[in-house]
């Protein structure tokens, strides 16, 4: 991975696993911007700092961003991630430095001053990026690629039509998808093939260091609600798929499609309306079509094994 990366996220258990994958794989990170989503902003911000401390990465700037969507009231997902947002791991209050810059201003500053375009990994509602694009549209030209976890071509996970990140802030998604940025979209159709089965959880637990123990604890809780809901043999590992794509794009195949975001309908708000044959209007993006789930778990095991236990 040559270009520098900014991760925008709403930790959230799967965001936390994505961050640990990024740290363990030495992804060149400029910073982590946080947004309200799975849990309110105060918790997503604190949780991102806790994960940085767990990974020994006190050097990484962690910024707090937008506490609510552009227009809609905030919807959260404590049923999936627990009240803390990191249920299953008992992490100490973070001792990481406090960065006072707002996530939106950090995104704008880093993109404007970058001598080479930057890659952005979007793991939560797109509010921060949308506000940055509204405030400073020229940053769009400085984004090498934007890899987003979100949307669905089949069933939603927060409504029958909509995936959570797009549902929480469909207006922000509309702003981002119409900003002429190279987008790779990883939808539920993909992430539901990357399940935290008992065998995979056992393999993570067997690594037996502080990071893998925390990851296994979080994933054990996280999978329960999806297991009960979908009857799947494990929870879908959404956000780590974005980091895996940056690390090993060969684990995925993509297709050029057109996409529109539903923002106004009663039953389908937040729907990513994907034209598989690319003939309609809408933004031309890459959507992931296939994924090598075993390959993703190999990356996770390698990343978790790279951590040493801190005294
Ligand atoms: O729908 C799944 C997505 O919404 C994931 O990014 C999860 O962390 C939540 O943000
Ligand atoms: Ca997320």
Overall description:
By secondary structure, the chain is of the alpha/beta class. It has a single domain (5-310), classed as Inosine-uridine Nucleoside N-ribohydrolase, Chain A, CATH 3.90.245.10. Helix content is 38%, strand content 17%. It has 12 helices and 9 strands. The chain has helices spanning 13-24, 41-54, 78-81, 103-113, 127-135, 164-168, 170-177, 188-191, 198-207, 210-230, 240-247, 293-305, and strands spanning 5-9, 29-34, 62-64, 118-122, 143-149, 183-186, 252-261, 272-275, 283-291. It has a 9-stranded mixed beta sheet, with helices on both faces. Helix 1 (13-24) packs parallel to helix 11 (240-247), helix 9 runs antiparallel to helix 10 and helix 9 (198-207) runs parallel beside helix 12 (293-305). The protein starts with a strand and ends in a 6-residue tail after the last helix. The relative contact order is 0.16. It binds alpha-D-ribofuranose (RIB) and calcium ion. Residues 10, 12, 14-15, 37-38, 123-124, 149, 157, 163-165, 238-239 line the site of alpha-D-ribofuranose (RIB). Residues 9-10, 12, 14-15, 37-38, 123-124, 239 line the site of calcium ion (CA).
Task: Provide a compact summary of the structure.
The chain is an alpha/beta fold. The protein is built from twelve helices and nine strands.
Give the end-to-end Cα distance, rounded to a whole number of Å.
31 Å
Ligand kinds:
alpha-D-ribofuranose, calcium ion
At CATH level 3, the topology is Inosine-uridine Nucleoside N-ribohydrolase, Chain A
Task: Characterize the largest beta sheet: strand count, sense, and whether it forms a barrel.
Answer: 9 strands, mixed
Give the number of DSSP strands: 9
Report the oligomer: single chain
Give the SSE order as H and E letters.
Answer: EHEHEHHEHEHHEHHHHEEEH
Number of domains: 1
Q: What is the strand arrangement across the widest sheet?
A: 3-2-1-4-5-6-9-7-8
CATH class categorisation: Alpha Beta
As residue ranges, the low-confidence spans are: none
Kindly report the average pLDDT value.
95
Structural class: alpha/beta
Q: Which architecture name does CATH use? A: Alpha-Beta Complex
């Amino acid at each position: 991975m040559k270009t520098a990366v900014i991760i925008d996220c709403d930790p959230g258990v799967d965001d936390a696993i994505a961050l640990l994958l990024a740290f363990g794989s030495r992804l060149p990170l400029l910073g982590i911007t946080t947004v309200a989503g799975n849990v309110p902003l105060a918790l997503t911000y604190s949780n991102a700092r806790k994960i940085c401390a767990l990974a020994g990465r006190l050097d990484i700037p962690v910024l707090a961003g937008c506490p609510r969507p552009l227009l809609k009231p905030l919807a959260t997902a404590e049923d999936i991630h627990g009240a803390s947002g990191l249920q299953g791991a008992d992490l100490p209050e973070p001792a990481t430095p406090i960065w006072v810059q707002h996530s939106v201003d950090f995104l704008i500053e880093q993109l404007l001053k970058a001598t080479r375009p930057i890659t952005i990994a979007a793991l939560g509602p797109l509010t921060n990026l949308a506000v940055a694009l509204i405030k400073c549209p020229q940053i769009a030209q400085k984004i090498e690629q934007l890899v987003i976890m979100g949307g669905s071509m089949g069933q939603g996970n927060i409504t029958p039509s909509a995936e959570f990140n797009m549902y929480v802030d469909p207006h922000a998604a509309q702003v981002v998808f119409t900003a002429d940025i190279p987008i790779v979209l990883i939808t539920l159709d993909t992430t539901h093939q990357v399940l935290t089965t008992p065998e995979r959880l056992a393999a993570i637990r067997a690594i037996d260091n502080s990071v893998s123990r925390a990851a296994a604890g979080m994933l054990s809780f996280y999978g329960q609600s999806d297991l009960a809901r979908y009857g799947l043999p494990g929870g879908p590992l959404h956000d780590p798929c974005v980091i895996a794509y940056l690390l090993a794009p060969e684990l995925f195949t993509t297709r050029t499609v057109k996409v529109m975001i539903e923002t106004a309908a009663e039953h389908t708000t937040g729907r990513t309306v994907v034209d598989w044959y690319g003939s309609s209007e809408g933004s031309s993006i890459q959507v992931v079509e296939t994924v090598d789930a075993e390959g993703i778990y190999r990356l996770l095991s390698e990343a978790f094994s790279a951590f040493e236990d801190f005294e």
